[in-house]
Design goal:
single chain; six-stranded mixed β-sheet; 6 helices; 12 strands
């Protein structure tokens, strides 16, 4: 059986949260009113048609731990930065506000993954760990498609030169120059090269920059702010 892959990325509009989390904040760890976050998550679940129990969240820690989930969870998966599942109709979710949300899927094998790839996690190899978990679940690299969601772009991601060099050493292709001419990072470029080297070639990048686009949450731009959600799931054809 082959599957239809569904991918969704939210914006900051249309939710119940007030400033500075206005208004569709999906992060439950940023200081927002828990009732507002719950209302926003319920609305997201309803919009997908899956229902709240079919969305699996994680408490992200900028690491490289991957969890394979085989059913709904009553609470977020702890201390995890990537979720993998083979269960149709079960959506795995990543929340971000500058980091790269990586949504991977093998529609033929029926395997999907949602990855939180910030600077630290990407440098530690969280995307590679998630890919390995997908392959162990039956996916084939040549059949995997990837969406790299909205994230801070290289033009707006200024870092010290030593940091840029260190990340480049671990994630080749990520070092760049910002619009101000200073050292910067383009994590999506580095992740693209990393996946391509591992045999994954169907890679799309959402062009939006979280810092430059006011319709998106950006911790780097605003400090205290909300989180976007990116999720992926399978539907039987």
């Amino acid at each position: 059986m082959s599957f239809r892959v569904r991918r969704v990325t939210t914006t900051r509009a249309g939710g119940a949260s007030t400033a500075p989390f206005d208004s569709f904040n999906l992060g439950d760890h940023v200081g927002d009113d828990p009732n507002a976050v719950a209302a926003n998550r319920f609305r997201l679940a309803a919009a997908t048609g899956l229902g709240a129990q079919r969305l699996v969240w994680m408490n992200q820690v900028h690491g490289d731990r991957v969890e394979v989930v085989d059913g709904p969870r009553d609470s977020p998966v702890e201390a995890t930065d990537a979720l993998v599942t083979t269960v149709p109709g079960l959506a795995v979710v990543v929340v971000t506000a500058d980091c790269v949300p990586v949504l991977m899927a093998d529609a033929r094998a029926g395997v999907v993954a949602a990855v939180h790839a910030g600077r630290v996690g990407a440098e530690r190899g969280v995307v590679v760990r998630a890919l390995e978990a997908m392959l162990n679940a039956g996916a084939q690299a040549a059949d995997i498609s990837v969406l790299l969601g909205p994230a801070v772009s290289g033009a707006h991601y200024e870092v010290p030169a030593a940091m840029a060099d260190a990340v480049e050493a671990a994630l080749p292709g990520s070092r760049t120059t910002t619009m101000g001419g200073t050292p910067g990072l383009d994590l999506r470029a580095g992740i693209t090269r990393q996946l391509t080297d591992l045999g994954v070639t169907a890679i799309e990048t959402d062009p939006r920059c979280t810092v430059a686009d006011p319709n998106l949450f950006s911790h780097r731009r605003d400090g205290l702010t909300g989180r976007l959600a990116s999720l992926v799931w399978l539907e039987p054809r």
